[in-house]
Amino acid sequence: MGLFRGFLAPFRGGLFVLRHPLKRYLLLPFLLSVGLAIVTMIAARRYWSQELTSLAAGSPLLGGFVLGVMTVVGGVVLFLIAQPLLLAVFSDTLSERVERIVKGTSPTAPFLASAGRALVHGLLKLVLYGLALVVALALTPAGGIGPIVGLALAALFLAYDGFDYPLARRGASFGAKWAFLAQNPMLTIGYGIGATVLYLIPFAVFVASPFAAVGATLAYIDMEKSPPEAAAVAKTKDANVAANS
Question: What are the residues whose beta carbons fall under 8 Å from the beta carbon of 76, sequence distance 6 or more?
């Protein structure tokens, strides 16, 4: 059930937002995402135009085809990395409001401590994203597995980004957030696949990050209510307490 629930979570999040008075929180994220998509595609094309100069000179047709493919792949990977960061404030606000709607309350943390933790975790996440991008680019010539590895890592990071919001409000450390994903592998895999599919739907991609954040929040709330899985949530909280003590 974890795999299936994880897969449906991003779509469930989108339906929740559309069925409740939360749609006004999507306008600015939508516009920002459209601008980001344009910027990432332009950046990817400029990068690969320089990298594939010799190939294009030797075989213009092949060079143009490879340039087109790598532009799309590079632009998508950059978009997947940058969108959750760009829309973090909006996604966090939606996630908290959804939790208040469902539970009537939401955990809160001191502003300075929360902001400082978010900054540190964001920087650590950027380092991991950068390493993942380097690995994907390095593996691109190796039988074309680079894009596959890149998309797999992107799906994993989408799972981290989604569950980051409910976990962060509970004071989870950076390691505890990854521990939660590791302790719930089927939920993580299902969510990563579902979020990736959501990103493949035309126009939905521009609000996929807020939808996925809401879906992860709903899935986390369900886990808190589910006795068999509550132990995993409690274990993550204990790990966080130990890390912060």
Answer: 40, 154, 199
Contact between residue 8 and residue 216 where contact means Cβ atoms under 8 Å apart:
no
Residue 69 lies in a domain: no
Q: Are 196 and 155 spatial neighbours (Cβ–Cβ below 8 Å)?
A: yes
The mean pLDDT of 174-196, rounded to a whole number, is 92
Number of domains in the chain: 1
pLDDT tens column, 27-68: 999 999 999 999 999 998 888 888 777 766 677 777 778 788
Q: Is residue 67 part of a domain?
A: no
Q: Domain for residue 203, yes or no?
A: yes
C-alpha distance from residue 223 to each of 232, 233, 236 (Å): 9, 7, 12
Among 216, 46, 206, 142, smallest CA distance to 150 is for 142
| Full-model pTM | 0.76
Could you tell me the residue range of the domain that residue 147 belongs to? Answer: 2-22+86-244
